[in-house]
Design brief:
single chain; 348 residues; alpha/beta; TIM Barrel; 2 domains; eight-stranded parallel barrel; EC 1.3.1.-; NADP; tRNA binding; tRNA-dHydroUridine_Synthase_C
Length: 348
């Protein structure tokens, strides 16, 4: 079998992070249209796939139009991850990521997510999964997303990065917070820089990337191979092309971005709704889609009123009515343009 081409990384290749409850097919397609070079699926339970849990296989929905896509799996050990990997390979997926960072208690208590960095037992299980999966996949097709460690003072980021590289990981993504922090406090970007210096495989940066400018600053400070946007993308799917413009690697120079004007934002909402309706697997898709829009409109002067209307929105027609209200809003104050930055000197 011909190995897949390498995944794009670098200043011209921002990624969408795996976002539980959000990075479904519709949102991934939307982010690709706004410049994301690679999108990750929501985290998918290896046990759920192996045991055929209701709804789990719905997470495997994909289209050729979103390639390349990285499927993120979570599980406690190889005996679940390997058969799940076989199933996903049979569905056409080529790149995979192991979740070793989710701090949610219901995930951690099963020995998954951030439990894999909590102690040596967890780290040993993680490393064995990497060895087994990398052996099956071949080089460059498996990544790991992990955290600094379990709690303050427990910083295993560099040591674990070296062990992951030795085990066969093709790339790693560091969210530089401890598991017990959840998403509070400040991401420690300097830890990403230390990991970059310690390994030869690509390191992707994650954490506190809320604006396009944050991505540029993070690359400048860390020398990471690329950035992975998470919460920033939930507020503004145009963050990917915004970042690329600042990095001098624009792919869509003439495309209006959602934060450019109310009209561009209305177009984004309509496009997201269209993709969600086209690829909906259940009536619940509308309510999932409705969860995005309050974040989109937050920066509008009328954002508070619009968010309240959105929480009461019951169907696609009402959502279109709100989009029409946004479309009719006057232009916002223009954002002062930022000069593109040459990031070549900061790259490893």
């Amino acid at each position: 079998m011909t190995p897949p081409r390498p995944l794009p990384m670098g200043p011209g290749a921002p990624w969408l992070a795996p976002l539980a409850g959000y990075s479904d097919l519709a949102f991934r397609l939307l982010c690709r249209e706004y410049g994301a070079a690679v999108c990750c699926t929501e985290m998918v339970s290896a046990k759920g796939l192996v045991y055929g849990s209701p709804g789990t296989r719905e997470y495997l929905a994909t289209l050729e139009a979103e390639a390349p896509v990285v499927l993120q799996l979570f599980g406690p050990e190889s005996k679940f991850m390997l058969p799940a990997l076989d199933l996903c390979l049979s569905k056409g997926f080529e790149w995979f990521d192991i979740n070793a960072g989710c701090p949610v208690p219901k995930v951690v208590k099963t020995g998954c997510g951030a439990a894999l960095v909590r102690d040596e037992d967890g780290r040993s299980r993680l490393l064995q999964m990497v060895r087994d999966m990398a052996r099956q996949l071949g080089p460059g097709r498996l990544g790991v997303k992990y955290r600094l460690g379990w709690t303050t003072g427990d910083d295993v980021a560099v040591e674990l990065a070296c062990r992951l590289e030795e085990a066969g990981a093709g790339w790693i993504t560091l969210h530089p917070r401890h598991a017990t922090q959840g998403y509070g406090g400040q991401a420690r970007w300097e830890a990403i820089g230390r990991v970059v210096q310690a390994v030869s495989i690509p390191v992707l940066a994650s954490g506190d990337l809320f604006q396009p400018e944050d991505g540029v600053r993070c690359l400048e400070q860390t020398g990471a191979a690329g950035v992975m946007f998470a919460r920033g993308a939930l507020k503004n799917p145009g963050i990917f092309e915004g970042f690329r413009r600042l990095a001098g690697t624009s792919a869509l120079p003439d495309v209006p971005l959602p934060h450019d004007s109310p009209q561009a934002l209305a177009a984004c909402i309509r496009r997201h709704a269209s993709l969600a309706r086209e690829h909906a697997s259940s009536p619940a898709q509308f309510f999932r889609m409705r969860g995005f829009i309050p974040r989109y409109v937050k920066r509008l002067p009328e954002g508070g009123t619009l968010r309240r209307r959105l929480t009461l929105c019951k169907n696609w027609e009402e959502l279109e009515t709100i989009a029409a209200v946004i479309d009719a809003l006057p232009a916002m104050e223009p954002v002062e343009p930022v000069e593109p930055v040459d990031l070549a000197e900061y790259m490893p």
